[in-house]
Here is the input.
Amino acid sequence: MSETTLKTAVIGMSELIGRYRFAGDIFELCAACPIFAKNWSCPPFEFDVDEFLGRFNHVYLFGIKMTHDETTRAAMDTKEKSEDYAFRLMEGVNLKMLAILHDLERKYPGSRGASGGSCRICGVCARVDSMPCRFPDKMRNSIESLGFNVSMISDELLGLKILWFKDALPPYQVLVNALFTNERRDEIIY
Here is the structure.
């Protein structure tokens, strides 16, 4: 069983870019990923990321910490079980967070959400077959795919250190999502 907690923060887009965007370094990490160029939420993009980010003034960050109890951690006694459990948990939480981001976008016109990790709406992305996105109105790019160092953002702005997998389920997992806006709306932070 996992307990979920939420941490939030707001930062100006120019400050986020200046302190946490390392587009070249992050692109190299993306290029090494097995789904590089196989998911529409991941690079390479058919749009100018700098231009896209330049449309927004503020970034609302949502850090979701999923803490695993000792019973769950003990039951994940192989690397495969740990990875499967962690992936399914992250996928479920990310889909719930994506619904919240869509609601916020409707409430604050002109805003745009950014998900944690690659899109999993379709299971197998249409990009694999060189087809356009099936759900462009629902799909959101991840923060990391836009060139941001999510580990630094999570640690420094949300106070949540991301733990990376080795061979066992870590004590907790962290997922970071964002909402890009033009107007500062402090009621977004809850």
